[in-house]
Design goal:
- The complex is a heterodimer of chains A (about 400) and B (about 600).
- With about 400 residues, chain A is of the alpha/beta class.
- Chain A has 2 domains: about 250 residues, TIM Barrel; about 60 residues, Arc Repressor Mutant, subunit A (Orthogonal Bundle), CATH 1.10.10.
- In chain A, the strands form 4 sheets. Chain A has a 9-stranded mixed β-sheet, sandwiched between helices.
- In chain B, helix 12 runs antiparallel to helix 14.
- Classes of the chains: A alpha/beta (about 400), B alpha+beta (about 600).
């Protein structure tokens, strides 16, 4: 039986994101707000985080909590526990809330997982990235393939029922066999969720300069597309449902926290560089851990207030990534915008080219369209005016 | 006591410097005003080290024989594009000084100019210049000149324009050998326009040689070729600055301001005569200036289009050989199709536009004008592939040919023959100037000449080869129009008229190039090259397979939006050809195909 993936109207509710910017090493491809060699800041950072939590405390319900990074498991279990406790103190976190922590294989152990479970986490997302040693080396990961598989096993043994693996595909020199073999071994661990990201060369990363200098070829579009298409089939066969461009869940075990982003829901972002979206206002915190610690609890760096049209455009841009698509009726109720009317001709063109589909009041990416999501999302943004002129 | 003469030479053989020395010997310019190459007026000419516009200067030379002679020194242009202008300048002279660089020896334009002078029946004084150079080899070069002209090597003058050595002696020789003018003061007035320029305040200024009769202010005159009638505002001489005189009489060289506003009404080579008592026959040799090389000129910033139009209008006022017409290109927007005498002319026009009018321009790769005989018997001149009729309506296509004269050290014969063959050249004559130097004469399609032929010649002869060419006529050829289609739509900017034997190559090169330059689209795009309905080459740009942001960036929606906005801006800048989006850079790179 096929499971219908959620659309924009299967809303989750407010989430809380906690950013932990520490890592053992910074990987060559990573452009997140993460730093290696700043472990001595861990303690003051936790204090600052707790002060921000108290500062932003409110009565509203919270459906999900997500600790991301960086490597949240660089903090010890006590520190993580104190943060969770503070959140539960200051917000109305639902009893059945999804509480996820990201972990890297080198920073966890069987006992650490047990402690995390005790601290209140009920879902773990492990940064496996690849199970091919030569690709792990290329990505500058510090763990082995075996260690990644062990970590997934330890999480399971400790009692984590909900485990996700993050994978990266399409790194230059990764063979088809490397990829297929890796996915097969991940499935054997019994994870209930897989996030698979095509390697992208982000500006400002070491990878970007390697490619720029010709030390590494850029990722190949066709290679990535082929690996993706294979993955979609392989995972469907293993009982997974794709619910977003890069995300696959066994049964209905979607990552509810991330689902809320694509549904243009509200979230509080806590910690250095974290982003929030509350009542049509997007804001972001100071990025550097030192700056964040120094300014806490007043850590907001900037914000933008969305007008009705901009809010609708953002929601469409995000929602179109969901495999369940945009529920057009619900969208009109929420934002007062009839998408088919407002963006008629570009949407029709994309439908004509088999990138978008319209069915029963849902607008969504076709199978092929999942790989061309930006072509669809682009419809809802305006070109940067200064670029258009140059 | 008038002597009208000219200096002729290959480019860079030191003509302008020698002219400066002659001015000094005749005390024509106060020392403090003397600048290098005084006669080259425009800054541009000074920078490029070449002379575009011929100039005439009247000088007084007190000879050793006790008389003071009136010298009219006519400085000729010295580049291949301008051989017609050279020949008009020569028609205004009674003798020439043929300058040869004592280090370089005879080169192609030395010969071309020599033949022009011989044709005009002028007294010829061969001279070696730059004898001060360490690399000068006066013995060898004298021997070359001697065998070429049949004069004793010992009689050839040696001068240095730089140091002034031998210059007074040379002028004495000019006075002795150049004959005085033989005009008829009583015959109907006739003056040859050998150059003209445009002055913002006075309108067109013509440089003339009066052959018969006389001209004075307020005289009604007629231009015999163009038929325009005008009243003379002023006549005068360059002494060396413009100095009005009461009249110009038979034998005089000077300027005449006919009171017209456009150089087209008083073009080079035309004969001015009295309007009421006109001459029966014009002076010989007038030729309609005919543009041979065509290219599209587009402003890089489309906002500059009106400025470009205005600049072209102004430029046309003092450049009778320059023509243009509006042209629209899918790829480049609004611009002009411009006709030039040759590549140098094209370069000069472009530089003047950019410099004097502050425009940024894109120039498409140059082409030539073809003659097309239709099945209905009409003859069309086609300089834009877009105007080419349907193949079924074409009886014959003729392409312009150039006679090329190449002079180079004999060790390069093989390399030169290879080049000429690649360019569909036909060897007409080969001749040794000396054991080491050879002269080759080819007929080459002009279209093949104008695309880096000169650069190739230079590089294949290690810089020692020289070239002169002129248009000889139209020859029927197997020429076809190759169109490039993107997803079935022809793209005007990429179509070209090429020789049938080259069509496949052109089509293949262009389609391959475009496949690399055009980004993948949402669908498969066919790039085809066709002749009429026949497809001769095809490439496919496979549909884009993946274009999606991978991650969700932890709730950073602004960033995601910015990335998409940037991508969309890139898309918006692309040109739409049917349903295919083509980046401007792809058009530019493809249009500059031949630059490699």
């Amino acid at each position: 039986m096929t499971i219908r993936p959620p659309s924009t109207s299967d809303t989750v509710g407010r989430g809380i994101y906690v950013h932990v910017p520490f890592c053992i090493v910074r990987c060559g491809y990573c452009d997140f707000n993460a730093y290696a060699g700043m472990d001595e800041l861990a303690h003051p950072y936790v204090e600052a985080l707790i002060s921000e939590i108290r500062h932003r405390s409110d009565e509203g319900p919270v459906a999900t909590v997500f600790f991301g990074g960086g490597t949240p498991t660089q903090l010890d279990s006590d520190q993580l526990g104190r943060i969770i406790d503070a959140i539960r103190d200051c917000f109305d976190v639902a009893a059945d809330a999804e509480v996820t922590i990201e972990a890297n294989p080198e920073s966890v152990s069987r006992s650490k997982f047990t402690q995390l479970l005790e601290a209140g986490f009920n879902r773990v997302s492990i940064g496996v990235q690849s199970l091919s040693p030569h690709i792990l080396a290329k990505l500058e990961r510090v763990h082995s393939a075996e260690r990644a598989l062990e970590a997934l096993g330890e999480a399971s043994a400790a009692g984590f029922e909900r485990r996700s693996a993050d994978l990266i595909y399409g790194t230059p020199s990764e063979s088809i066999a490397d990829w297929q073999d890796g996915v097969g071994r991940i499935l054997e661990t019994g994870v209930d969720h897989i996030s698979a990201y095509a390697l992208t060369v982000e500006e400002g990363t070491p990878l970007h300069s390697w490619v720029g200098r010709g030390q590494m070829p850029p990722p190949d579009e066709d290679d990535q597309a082929m690996k993706y298409e294979w993955l979609v089939e392989r995972l469907a066969g293993a009982g997974f449902t794709r619910y977003e461009v890069s995300n696959f869940a066994k049964g209905r075990s979607w990552c509810r926290h991330n689902l809320n982003y694509w549904q243009a829901g509200e979230y509080l972002g806590l910690g250095a560089g974290a982003h929030s979206h509350v009542s049509g206002r997007r804001s972001w915190n100071l990025k550097s851990p030192q700056g964040y610690i120094a300014k806490a609890p007043e850590v907001e760096e900037g914000f933008e207030v969305l007008g009705a049209a901009a809010a609708a455009a953002d929601a469409a841009m995000l929602g179109i990534r969901l495999s369940g698509g945009i529920d057009l009726g619900h969208f009109q109720e929420t934002f007062g915008v009839d998408l088919l009317e407002s963006y008629g001709s570009p949407l029709e063109e994309l439908m004509g080219r088999g990138i978008l589909e319209l069915e029963d009041g849902y607008l969504r990416l076709s199978e092929r369209g999942h790989l061309l999501g930006s072509q669809a999302a682009m419809v809802f943004v305006s070109p940067l005016s200064e670029l258009a002129r140059s | 006591m008038i002597r009208a003469f000219s200096l002729i030479a290959h480019v860079d053989h030191g003509k302008s410097t020698l002219a400066d020395r002659i001015l000094q010997v005749c005390h024509a310019v106060p020392e403090r005003q003397m600048r290098e190459q005084y006669l080259d007026r425009m800054d541009l000419e000074r920078e490029r080290g070449i002379t575009i516009k011929a100039q005439a200067i009247r000088l007084n030379f007190p000879s050793e024989d006790g008389s003071v002679y009136e010298l009219n020194l006519i400085d000729t242009p010295g580049h291949v594009d301008f051989s017609y202008e050279v020949s008009r300048s020569l028609a205004a002279c009674d003798g020439v000084v043929l300058l040869v660089d004592a280090a370089q020896g005879i080169e192609a334009q030395t010969l071309a100019n020599l033949y022009l002078a011989l044709e005009a029946g002028l007294e010829l004084i061969p001279v070696l210049n730059k004898i001060d150079l360490p690399a000068a080899d006066p013995e060898r070069v004298s021997a070359e000149l001697s065998s070429l002209m049949g004069v004793p090597a010992g009689s050839i003058f040696r001068v240095s324009g730089k140091t002034g050595e031998g210059v007074p002696e040379l002028i004495e020789e000019v006075v002795r050998r150049v004959p005085p003018p033989k005009g008829d003061l009583e015959a109907p007035d006739r003056a040859l326009i050998f150059d003209s320029s445009y002055d913002n305040y006075r309108g067109v200024v013509t440089f003339v040689r009066v052959r018969d009769g006389q001209f004075k202010a307020r005289q009604k005159v007629r231009m015999m070729a163009t038929g325009s009638v005008a009243e003379i505002e002023e006549v005068g001489v360059f002494a060396p600055t413009m100095t009005a005189v009461e009249r110009l009489v038979a034998g005089d060289v000077g300027y005449l301001i006919p009171g017209v506003k456009n150089v087209r009404e008083a073009t080079v080579g035309d004969t001015i005569t009295d309007a009421t008592r006109p001459a029966k026959e014009p002076l010989p040799g007038y030729r309609e200036p005919r543009p041979m090389v065509w290219a599209g000129l587009y402003p890089t910033d489309s906002d500059q289009y009106p400025d470009l139009r205005e600049a072209l209008d102004k430029l046309k006022l003092n450049d009778a050989a320059f023509v243009y017409e509006p042209e629209t290109s899918q790829a480049l927007g609004f611009g002009f199709r411009c006709g030039f005498l040759g590549l140098l002319h094209m370069d000069i026009v472009r530089e003047r536009l950019e410099r004097e009018f502050d425009l940024e321009l894109l120039i498409t790769s140059p082409s030539v004008a073809y003659e097309i005989v239709t099945t209905a018997g009409e003859i069309l001149s086609v300089h834009n592939p877009a105007d080419m009729p349907d193949p079924a309506a074409i009886e014959e296509v003729r392409e312009p040919f150039a006679a090329a004269m190449i002079i180079a050290p004999s060790e390069f014969i093989g390399a030169l023959m290879e080049l000429a063959q690649e360019r569909r050249g036909e060897l007409k004559e080969m001749h040794y100037l000396s054991e080491q130097r050879v002269e080759l004469r080819y007929h080459v399609p002009l279209a093949e000449m104008i695309v880096d032929f000169f650069d190739q010649l230079k590089s294949r002869t290690k810089g020692y080869g020289s070239l002169d060419y002129e248009f000889v006529g139209y020859v029927p050829g197997k020429l076809v129009k190759v169109e490039i289609l993107l997803h079935g739509n022809p793209v005007d900017a990429f179509s070209a008229i090429v020789h049938r034997d080259r069509s496949y190559n052109y089509g293949k090169r262009m389609t391959e190039k475009l496949r690399e330059l055009i980004p993948r689209q949402q669908f498969d795009v066919a790039i085809q090259a066709s002749i009429g309905s026949r497809i001769i080459a095809r490439e496919t740009i496979k549909a884009r397979r993946k274009d999606v942001l991978a991650k969700c960036y932890g709730g950073d929606v602004s960033r995601k939006r910015k990335l998409l906005e940037k991508q969309k801006a890139g898309k918006a800048r692309m040109k739409q050809v049917g349903s295919v989006e083509v980046p401007q850079e792809a058009f530019m790179a493809a249009l500059r195909l031949d630059d490699k």
